[in-house]
Backbone:
């Protein structure tokens, strides 16, 4: 049980680490309360002081998830601050940009492109330049290589339950999902999931966060299980839903948690049988 003073102190400390020392966190907390009243009070005490200080996920992981949430819902005003905070919490620029790529696949390119413009502005501000150097192009892969990578990615995702042969693996998803299956196999699995700028564990956390805040329950169920195969713990996956209470609201968080616990119960039942 925490006293209010402890939650307030935790919120000020979260502002300290998010800012990386660029401003006085105590003064910023007071300004937030003064400007926004009760909303500012709960922002400091509950969101920053409570959610951000729970032990199940590090602040680095919470920044990973929060940048994902904000990008997915197009909260561009909040995003700029949290991009800098993500760097201060230990994410690299490449990892931040990789979040946007995963959002492009699971929430759409328009959201990712809007966030990319915010990222560009943050990098320019931090570097003190008007224009950044040209970014490196993604690997240009022929289909045989995309299919090989997709098959390897899916083997880990599904615990080896997919076909060993890439063409047979692709045929199965195309038979099930038609043209959507083609795009999923070739691009989502063969390109996005095959990239190594994020660990598979982090990429699963990002994907679960996207699906939870988007209320894509059927896909969330699939990717919760994928997350377990990628090394996420059940507690970490549930903690994504806890963080979601502050950034997507309680209805989405409750729905996500119910989905997770139903899946875990099903897995436990299978293990007992």
Residues:
């Amino acid at each position: 049980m925490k006293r209010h003073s402890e939650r307030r102190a935790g919120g000020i400390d979260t502002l300290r680490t998010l800012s990386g020392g660029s401003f006085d966190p105590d003064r910023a907390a007071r300004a937030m309360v003064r400007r926004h009243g009760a909303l500012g009070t709960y922002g400091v005490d509950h969101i920053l002081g409570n959610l951000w200080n729970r032990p199940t996920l590090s602040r680095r992981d919470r920044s990973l998830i929060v940048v994902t949430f904000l990008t997915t819902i197009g909260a561009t005003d909040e995003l700029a601050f949290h991009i800098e905070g993500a760097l201060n919490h230990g994410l690299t620029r490449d990892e931040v940009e990789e979040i946007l790529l995963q959002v492009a696949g699971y929430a759409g390119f328009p959201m990712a492109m809007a966030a990319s413009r915010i990222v560009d502005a943050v990098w320019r501000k931090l570097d003190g330049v008007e224009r950044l150097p040209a970014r490196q192009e993604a690997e240009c892969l022929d289909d045989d290589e995309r299919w090989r990578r997709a098959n390897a990615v899916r083997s880990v995702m599904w615990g080896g339950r997919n076909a060993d042969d890439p063409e047979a693996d692709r045929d199965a998803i195309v038979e099930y999902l038609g043209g959507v299956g083609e795009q999923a196999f070739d691009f989502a699995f063969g390109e996005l999931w095959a990239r190594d700028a994020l660990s598979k564990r982090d990429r699963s956390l990002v994907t679960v966060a996207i699906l939870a805040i988007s209320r894509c329950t059927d896909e969330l169920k699939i990717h919760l299980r994928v997350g377990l195969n990628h090394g996420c713990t059940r507690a970490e996956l549930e903690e994504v839903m806890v963080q979601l209470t502050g950034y997507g609201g309680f209805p989405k968080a409750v729905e996500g948690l119910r989905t997770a616990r139903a899946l875990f119960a099903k897995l436990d039942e299978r293990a007992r049988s």
In short: The radius of gyration is 20 Å. The mean pLDDT is 97.
